[in-house]
Write a structure and sequence with these properties.
This protein is mainly alpha-helical. Helices cover about 65% and strands about 0% of the residues.
Amino acid sequence: MPVVESPSKLSKVLKSPIIKVVAAVVVVVGLALVLWAVQANRLAANGKGVCTPAILRSANANLDPTKVVSLEPIVNQIKQTKGYDKDANCLYVVTAYFVNISDADNAQKSLDSLTEVYDASKGFGTDLKPTGLGYQTLVGDVAFLHENAKQSTDNARGQ
């Protein structure tokens, strides 16, 4: 590495257009990386970005318990999407589906995942407008499924 013999030579090197361009590129790339990391963390934290708006709108139109046949392929598509288990919107749809088909165990598993990522201050995405079924209602529905399953088991045993 060459040794700079005097401050005037260092001053000339630092004023060189090549050094300025390299420094500018380093700063821009650094800022871009920081912004990308912040955005990726924000999306992951908000549980947004995995289920597309089209999927959510399609699911939203089929959340009614009478439309489980139409909702099933959407849920299968969601479950095949990498990272769906970290997306509150995706998990809402999957949990609602399991509630609608009275699958208490899978509804509970989905609800547990949803509970880990759901942020009540943000709610669900604008493309998913649960008709009367907010997060707390979903929690109550899953609890009801468990209670109903327990009563059915007790009745079958003659208790």
